[in-house]
Design a protein that fits this description.
The complex is a heterodimer of chains A (592) and B (372). Helices cover 29% and strands 16% of the residues of chain A. Chain A has 592 residues and is an alpha/beta fold. In chain A, helix 5 runs antiparallel to helix 11, helix 7 packs across helix 11 and helix 9 (227-233) packs across helix 11. Chain B is 45% helix and 13% strand. In chain B, strands 1-2-3 form a three-stranded antiparallel beta sheet. In chain B, strands 6-7-8 form a three-stranded antiparallel beta sheet. Classes of the chains: A alpha/beta (592), B alpha+beta (372). Chain A binds chain B through residues 1-2, 4-6, 8-9, 11-12, 14-15, 21, 32-37, 55-56, 58, 89-93, 96-97, 105, 137, 140, 143-146, 149, 183-187, 209, and chain B through 58-59, 61-66, 127, 129, 136, 139, 146-151, 154, 156, 164-166, 168, 188, 191-192, 195-201, 204, 286-288, 290-296.
Chain lengths: 592, 372
């Protein structure tokens, strides 16, 4: 010990003359830092109620609650997180995983209240003083990537390989790839709200994650008897609302469905006893048309024990979806596998039996109910000079006529008029037949009703897009056809509709081609209905109007699929069939 | 030391679990003759919160906000141990910059803890001012943590795969300025604590840890290094960025409380020096590796022991995975397991009753790591 040790501690008194380090709260505030994890905020418009915050919260401090009695809608559960600050540990995991990035934290950390119940509130709905706080913890998905991740890439043929033939473009996932992709799902179930037939998407993805592919297939068939077709050509409304799509890429729901179906040689073997009737339903039902809607209705009616007879004009089932979509998108190989399921389920098919008004009357007498799902058989005409010239063909009929097998002579250059999926299919098919292909469409490319995927792949394959072109006429030339058109400008619709194409000037432009395909839409043909039925049915634009049970308003007659107003895709038709089957079953069995 | 029959009687006293002189919630049951302790038995169990069991019920990711709660003054060691263990099991590579940031966080935490314990060592013998000064300097470190992580005490910043955020703009500059201001004030604390006749009187030759006990009892950290041992995981088994840093293991040979206090004081200087080195050499790059879907993240089966040097010595996590979405077993092993039980019971025999909390603080006994 040194002598100074006796005195040195007293030097502490020199501190008395210095400024205090203590913050004299409340006279001086000490706000939280820019990154402070304080009370929650929620951008209520951005939030989709996926419940990811609720799932990740380790303290169960977050409940998803209904606010303002809003009902769920497509892609939004309308539930919002309520945070209980008696449980919250301010870890901010909820912020980092928020799929839309709507949830954040303010830098406010103190709050006094006489009412303890207010310490449990719905951020963004129950107003708080820190709602406008600029500072506080924010998500940074760039760093963590917890709120959205990229999907497992799908192996596809290169554009050069594709145009050599009709080989399927998409190669499908391997087991390992499918499991990784499936494990990205956060099981929020928002996809179910968007799927027309409300498939059990989170459940079957969970089954794939755990490697139980059979279970996934069984779940498909619970409300969709055409899973392989949907797994390849579905318009996947589910993926457009996927919570993972906001800051990453949506789960490849369609490809997972495809993977599960392709995993088995026979789907009916997987279903096994699941194909036996689940109810002892009575009654006989006639189904007109073996397209997706007719097949779907017949499958569920048969499963409920009804005697179902399907009348199809063609020699095969599957409808326009199976027979007009080209091989490279929907190969015929999956057809027999899916049809076997219907036969095993006890559906009676009568192929090559077009329904006439006389036949329809007989069906109405003989059967307890009729489900009409004839689809759209007619390709719309273009009322234009020269539209009836030889070499001007209807795209729909061309696609149905097995262009991959038969030798169609289209010449060197093909022009397709239209911007829907039929137009894309025709353009890409012509490209595969060795033609130079041009697509003419009245509106802009982003207005095209075709799937983005189709448009992109068509562009990759070297198809020449001519958007904003208004057809004027078609002329015959010595070498082929001359397509004359005007250039269009887009004009805002004063009624708030989508912008309309209007002639830019009277100046005419032209393209010399060999073949022109019309793909401007399809129309129904209600010729099969007897006059007394046709006159009592409610129709709009030639389509049969139905209620939420697919009931037409005429005793015992139901309708669905493309012949009724709707999205006009496979899964919507399937959903129509499911609804019709339920309604017909209820009706028939109440009477019987 | 059994009292002679008839001369005095043995007094029996419970010290703690609720007592400001006890570090955390544990109790020491003592028998003493006059004011000299003849027998001491430690009792733990007042702070058991079932962390290890809770972790088995939580997803892999949900545990990082939980583990930090095992240690209030130095929570980051838990996050780091857990992250290292999970990364080893799952085969995750941590980006280089994240390693340096983690090292910085660990050193900042060590600095904060040592400042508090250094001041607290004075506090145990009635020098309240020293304790307050220690807490004040630690608060400057907490300000840095608040800016970096968004939390003052529980940072929840080190995650499996890296860290949660990059350094804020200008953070390095503000850290240097804080370190400068701490370094400037340390001599004041030295005059108050180390160059203090009372402190020296109460600590030199008191609370002796025989160097032979280091191996016998498995003593680690400052307790071992205060008795001439050179044990330091940072040097013996370098983790994160420690292999790239220039430093020597600090040890003292006095075996008493004073040596351990001096050792801690020198650790403070070392932390400041390491922090400056880290800031100078920190590489650029990403700070986190992308993890799989957190709610379905399965870690491959296996078992691993991850260890690091905490302010109290070697601190480790033994983590077992059965390949599921949650840990099968997590075992937390803190140095106080030995220091606050076997060693303390041995040291207290023959000690003066007034020195009990003095000894306990010098061992930085921490009950939460004994009863997880």
């Amino acid at each position: 010990m040194r002598f100074t040790d006796i005195f040195s501690p007293f030097l502490a008194w020199t501190r008395a003359s210095k400024k205090a380090d203590t913050i004299p709260y409340p006279y001086k505030d000490n706000p939280g830092s820019d990154r402070y994890r304080g009370f929650h905020k929620n951008d209520i418009e951005k939030c989709i109620g996926c419940g990811r915050c609720h799932d990740i919260c380790q303290n169960e401090a977050i409940d998803m609650v209904k606010v303002a009695d809003a009902d769920p809608e497509k892609g939004d559960s309308k539930l919002r997180p309520m945070v209980d600050y008696g449980r919250c540990c301010w870890c901010a995991l909820c912020i980092d995983v928020c799929s839309t990035g709507s949830l954040s934290m303010s830098n406010t950390y103190s709050w006094s209240t006489f009412n303890a119940d207010t310490c449990k509130y719905v951020p963004g709905v129950d107003s708080r003083t820190w709602d406008d706080s600029e500072k506080g913890y924010r998500q940074d998905n760039e760093i963590l990537g917890w709120a959205g991740s990229p999907r497992v890439p799908m192996t596809v043929l290169t554009p050069e390989e594709r145009i050599k033939g009709f080989e399927e473009v998409v190669k499908g996932y391997s087991m390992a790839e499918a499991v990784v992709e499936a494990s990205r799902c956060i099981r929020c179930g928002l996809c179910v709200t968007a799927c027309p037939t409300h498939m059990h998407i989170p459940e079957y993805i969970a089954a794939i994650t755990s490697g139980d592919i059979e279970e996934a297939v069984k779940l498909f068939y619970d409300n969709n008897p055409l899973p392989e077709m949907c797994g390849k050509v579905c318009t996947r409304q589910c993926e457009t609302v996927c919570a993972m799509g906001y800051q990453g890429e949506a789960i490849a729901i369609r490809w997972l469905k495809r993977f599960a179906c392709e995993n088995f040689e026979s789907l009916s073997e997987v279903l096994g006893t699941d194909l036996e009737p689940v109810a002892s339903g009575k009654g006989t039902v006639a189904v007109i048309g073996a397209g997706p809607a007719g097949l779907s209705a017949s499958y569920y009616l048969a499963r409920m024990g009804c005697d179902v007879h399907v009348f199809e004009a063609d020699d095969e089932g599957g409808g326009v979806a199976q027979h007009a979509i080209p091989e490279y998108r929907l190969p015929a190989s999956g057809y027999a596998k899916q049809m076997e399921v219907f036969e095993k389920a006890g559906v009676n098919f009568h192929y090559g039996k077009p329904v006439t008004p006389g036949k329809f009357r007989k069906l109405m007498k003989k059967y307890d109910a009729v489900f009409a799902a004839p689809g759209l058989q007619r390709s719309s005409d273009l009322r234009m000079e020269g539209a009836d010239l030889p070499g001007v063909l209807h795209a729909l009929y061309f696609l149905k006529d097995d262009p991959d097998k038969k030798n169609h002579d289209l010449g060197d250059t093909v022009l397709v008029i239209g911007g829907g999926n039929v137009a894309m299919d025709t353009a890409r098919t012509s490209r595969r037949l060795g033609c130079r292909v041009i697509v003419s469409y009245r509106r802009r490319i982003e207005d095209m009703p075709a799937d983005d995927e189709e448009i992109n792949e068509a562009m990759e394959e070297g198809i020449d897009f001519r958007p904003q072109t208004i057809p004027a006429r078609i002329e015959k030339t010595s070498t082929g056809l001359r397509y004359v058109y005007f250039k269009a400008v887009m004009v805002e619709d004063p009624d708030g509709g989508r912008p309309k194409p209007v002639k830019e000037s009277d100046e005419e432009y032209h393209l010399d081609v060999n073949t022109i395909f019309l793909a401007i839409g399809q129309a129904p043909s209600l010729d099969f209905l007897p006059l007394e039925v046709a006159s009592t049915l409610k129709t709009r634009w030639g389509l049969i109007e139905v209620d939420e049970n697919q009931f037409t308003g005429v005793e015992n007659i139901y309708a669905g699929g493309d012949v009724t107003p709707g999205a006009g895709d496979v899964v919507t038709a399937v959903a129509d069939g499911v609804r019709a089957a339920k309604a017909i079953f209820r009706k028939v069995n109440r009477n019987g | 030391m059994i009292p002679e029959a008839g001369r005095t009687k043995t007094t029996h006293l419970f010290f703690g679990p609720q007592h400001p002189g006890v570090t955390g919630n544990m109790s020491v049951e003592m028998w003493f003759d006059g004011d000299e302790i003849t027998k001491a038995v430690t009792h733990v169990g007042y702070l058991h919160r079932g962390f290890e069991k809770l972790m088995e019920r939580r997803l892999w990711i949900q545990n990082f906000p939980l583990v930090c709660r095992i240690c209030v003054p130095e929570p980051d060691i838990n996050e780091e141990c857990y992250a290292m263990a999970v990364e080893t099991l799952a085969g995750i590579t941590v980006p280089e910059r994240a390693k340096w940031i983690r090292t910085m966080v660990l050193e900042l935490a060590r600095l904060g803890t040592n400042l508090m314990v250094f001041g607290g060592q004075g506090g145990t013998i009635g020098m309240g001012t020293a304790a307050m000064w220690g807490i004040t300097l630690r608060d400057f470190v907490l300000d840095l943590f608040e800016e970096l992580t968004g939390g003052r005490v529980y940072h929840m910043y080190i995650i499996p795969g890296g860290v949660r955020r990059d350094l804020p703009e200008g953070f390095g500059r503000r850290m240097i300025s804080t370190l400068d201001s701490i370094a400037e004030r340390l001599p004041e604390m030295d005059r108050l604590i180390l160059n203090n006749a009372v402190f020296k009187d109460r600590t030199i030759g008191v609370g002796m840890v025989d160097p032979a006990w280091v191996d016998e009892l498995g003593l680690v950290g400052p307790v071992a290094r205060g008795s001439g041992s050179g044990r330091d995981v940072r040097k013996d088994d370098p983790y994160e960025a420690y292999a790239h840093l220039d430093f020597q293991v600090i040890y003292e040979t006095g075996n008493d409380i004073y040596s351990r206090t001096v050792m801690r004081r020198r650790e403070i200087d070392l932390s400041i020096s390491l922090l400056r080195q880290i800031l100078e050499n920190m590489p650029e790059g990403p700070v986190s590796t992308r993890l799989p879907n957190l709610t379905q993240w399965k870690v491959p089966p296996g078992e691993v022991y991850a260890r690091l040097e905490s302010s109290r010595g070697e601190y480790g996590y033994y983590v077992v995975s059965d390949g599921g979405t949650r840990p099968r077993r997590v075992h937390v092993r803190g140095p106080s397991y030995v220091h606050a039980t076997a060693l303390l019971e041995r040291m207290l025999v023959g000690a003066n009753i007034a020195d009990v909390s003095n000894i306990m603080v010098s061992l930085t006994t921490c009950p939460p790591e004994i009863e997880r």
